[in-house]
Amino acid sequence: MATSKYQSFIESSSINGANAPYIEAYYEQFLEDPESVDPSWRAYFRLIQDQSAPRETPHSEVIARFERLAREPRRVVAAEAGFDAKAAEKQAGVLRLINYYRMRGHQAAKLDPLGLAPIENLDDLDPAHHGLGPEDFETVFNTGTLAAGADRLPLREIIRILKSVYTDTIGAEYMYLTETREKRWVQQRLESVVFQPKLTVERKHAVLTQLVAAEGLERYLHNKYVGQKRFSLEGGDSLIPAMDEILRGCAARDVDEIVVGMAHRGRLNVLVNVLGKSPKELFAEFEGKYSVDALSRHGDVKYHLGFSTDVEVDGKRLHLVLAFNPSHLEIVNPVVEGSVKARQVRREDEAGQKIVPILIHGDAAFAGQGVVMETLQLSHSKGYATGGTLHIIVNNQIGFTTPNPIEIETGKEARTSRYCTDLAKMLEAPVFHVNGDDPEAVTFVTRLAMDFRNEFHKDVIVDICCYRRHGHNEADEPSVTSPVMYDVIKKQPTTLTLYAKKLEEEGTLARGAADTLVKEYRDGLDKGENTARITLGLVGNKHTVNWSKYRDGSWDTPVDTTVSAGALKTISEQLLQLPDGFTLHPRVQKIWEDRAKMGAGELPMDWGFAETMAYGSLAKEGFHVRLSGQDARRGTFFHRHATIHDYKNGARYTPLRHLVKDKYGFVVNDTLLSEEGVLGFEYGYSTTDPDSLVIWEAQFGDFANGAQVLFDQFIAAGQAKWGRLCGLTVFLPHGYEGQGPEHSSARIERFLQLCAENNQQVCVPSTPAQMFHMLRRQMKRSTRLPLIVMTPKSLLRHPLSVSSLKDLTKGGFQPVIPEVEKLDAKKVTRIVFCSGKVYFDLVQARQKDKLENVALVRIEQLYPFPREGYEAELARYPNAKEVLWCQEEPENQGAWYQIKHRLAVYLQPQHVMMYSTRKGAPTTAVGYLKVHQKEQADVVQEALTGGKRM
């Protein structure tokens, strides 16, 4: 309908119909930014868009406007020609030209410092494509929304401004932003800068000093430690002045903490020249002269290590953190975001004004690794927003050895998308590509990006297009795979050389002054001193957390995890209270009624109730509880109901949040369908806040496969490599119930394989009370260790897997649960040890067969192995000859291969070690229910009456 109304205007107006191209261009401008057009035009365009408007749209206001334009003496060509059709077409062409420079100018920008990437000749940026020729260059046109400082300018000046802003050394991508205010903000900042001085002489000298430090450190290391890996920053030197600009901007905004995540490229440079790490310490790492007291048990290579310190910037004290990171590059992204979130919660900085995350990426990794997308998707989700992240990409235009398409005439080898940053468009995050050999442009877009983040609390990308002077590492020969690129690089002056020459030519730097700065920096390195950034250390820092009490604690020190009956009753009653008029779903209503009986001791306690009591009691004691997962609120298996929904209107209510006044006392998040990103976030959170019980729950334990890097590189090894304590708890639903290969096993064997030196706990609780005491023990003990829990599925409602309320008021978590039946110990000839659901199958089969010679013992903590409890059970049955391990999993999976040596080492000479498992298999479980049932029955029967010898 809008098209027909627009056409009716053309046909009905003999005075103005020829000006349709002008109106069309103005309408396109309205579609791009409604606020940029005159209010009367805005109302008119909205009217023709309105499908419910009258069939005939009144054009009187528009006609009157053109009549006024025709009468007014104006300097524009339209007035001189009586605003005829040709004039309107010219003006429309100018508006289109402006728009296309904004949209596509980045494709013609001079971004590649090597000059290898061809500059595209785009028709859309050619004035002739819009009906404009040389004869129009001196004509004055309306500039539309161009923030050029004047409403009307000659076409020549308009084009000069557009080229300067959009096709010089900055390529801005932002026209895909749908929020008009954000788009106009970027336009204003970019386009108005052509009339403003870019950097003061003082700031130019500061940038030069940063480049001296960046290049000076790399050359010093290159000459002193020949051939040693350092993953040089050379070619991407402008990262250091960019980081300096970030620090200055944060100091001006009164930011307190900056948390940085980055991979190894340029990491040593950032450590020394940004965070102020002592060069003497760095040299000692190159020379292998480590302080034994400073080492973790195993340590890590120097370009993976983190750092934490305070620095002074423009009179402001800033706390800087560089997160530890393995060679899995982008995996650090969610870890940093989680750490930042924990800091923001601690400081009640919900807007992210005081603590800022900075992520530094490589171009190939940013485009290629899925955890980047997962982290970006978390950026505005509930419970995960950190107020926006500034992303800096050190774009070497090359992956490991795979060149960017700039060297390839046919096809694309490095990636499919045009830019490595294209992934950010899904967030509508603006991207500022910038030539790394123009450090002034780099500092400008960095400041612009920080301002955008501060204004809109959104992610923003700075893509520093640069190069890699050496190979992937210093022992690599890059010209083997990229001969053309590296022939150019060998001849390319360094960024420092180019910038010093520029400053000398413009008269802001005395000739030879740069050489003096280089010598002074080198002399400082010779003395082991940092002349670029002086660290203040952590003395007097008020924002860090004291972890010392957890470092000295022992995992096996007994702790009291009981809760009094009165306290449990109070918590239960509080949690059962609902808002007035709140209607529960009938099934949830039954659960609420049962929980009331459980709280009164009238009904055996189920898993959901016990878990809730653990969270509630911890919150009452001042701890925070943070639970996340893809269905964490309800629980995948319909058991938790931490958040309930009004059956009539959908309103949500989380009872545990109202248990204490602290709004962070209990937080539960239903997350996006991500394992790696969310687990990384929660790990980062837990390494930053020892007083929070941080739990990540997989929808099924099998899905932890998607986050294996986190388990291998961070959770299991973080303390050994980096000394990073972590109390993260991971729930992995596990159990063989005929649901097929992907919904059975949480891969216990993988977690046990990672166990050594008491680095983490692997538990398989079999009763609600065990779950209660285990969770409380995690926070009450004097240390912080990761806790991997194989949580139940069908056991959640198993009639034998229940506890009494009294079980919470006494005892504690039992690493080994002895036989519960009153067997005659002298008659027992076989002891069956097991974990998890299979225990209840064994109990029922033993009862059916009336076996009195078999004792069933549960090992609830597979690691650290409960030696004392295990030996006590062996000694309990003096006539037992057969000691058997039973598991549901295939022989080559589950706990057997990882636990058999522990079971065997404590046996007495009379004992024979046996086992009962499914047959070894390449898949975790069968996909047919009847086959599963037969296998399960065979495993149970073999455990009670047969078995294979070890």
Automatic annotation (TrEMBL):
<dbReference type="InterPro" id="IPR001017">
    <property type="entry name" value="DH_E1"/>
</dbReference>
<dbReference type="InterPro" id="IPR029061">
    <property type="entry name" value="THDP-binding"/>
</dbReference>
<dbReference type="Pfam" id="PF00676">
    <property type="entry name" value="E1_dh"/>
</dbReference>
<protein>
    <recommendedName>
        <fullName>2-oxoglutarate dehydrogenase E1 component</fullName>
        <ecNumber>1.2.4.2</ecNumber>
    </recommendedName>
</protein>
<dbReference type="InterPro" id="IPR011603">
    <property type="entry name" value="2oxoglutarate_DH_E1"/>
</dbReference>
<dbReference type="Pfam" id="PF16078">
    <property type="entry name" value="2-oxogl_dehyd_N"/>
</dbReference>
<dbReference type="Pfam" id="PF16870">
    <property type="entry name" value="OxoGdeHyase_C"/>
</dbReference>
<keyword id="KW-0560">Oxidoreductase</keyword>
<dbReference type="GO" id="GO:0005829">
    <property type="term" value="C:cytosol"/>
</dbReference>
<feature type="domain" description="Transketolase-like pyrimidine-binding">
    <location>
        <begin position="605"/>
        <end position="798"/>
    </location>
</feature>
<dbReference type="GO" id="GO:0030976">
    <property type="term" value="F:thiamine pyrophosphate binding"/>
</dbReference>
<comment type="similarity">
    <text>Belongs to the alpha-ketoglutarate dehydrogenase family.</text>
</comment>
<keyword id="KW-0786">Thiamine pyrophosphate</keyword>
<dbReference type="GO" id="GO:0006099">
    <property type="term" value="P:tricarboxylic acid cycle"/>
</dbReference>
<dbReference type="InterPro" id="IPR032106">
    <property type="entry name" value="2-oxogl_dehyd_N"/>
</dbReference>
<comment type="function">
    <text>E1 component of the 2-oxoglutarate dehydrogenase (OGDH) complex which catalyzes the decarboxylation of 2-oxoglutarate, the first step in the conversion of 2-oxoglutarate to succinyl-CoA and CO(2).</text>
</comment>
<dbReference type="InterPro" id="IPR031717">
    <property type="entry name" value="ODO-1/KGD_C"/>
</dbReference>
<dbReference type="InterPro" id="IPR042179">
    <property type="entry name" value="KGD_C_sf"/>
</dbReference>
<dbReference type="Pfam" id="PF02779">
    <property type="entry name" value="Transket_pyr"/>
</dbReference>
<dbReference type="GO" id="GO:0045252">
    <property type="term" value="C:oxoglutarate dehydrogenase complex"/>
</dbReference>
<dbReference type="GO" id="GO:0004591">
    <property type="term" value="F:oxoglutarate dehydrogenase (succinyl-transferring) activity"/>
</dbReference>
<dbReference type="InterPro" id="IPR005475">
    <property type="entry name" value="Transketolase-like_Pyr-bd"/>
</dbReference>
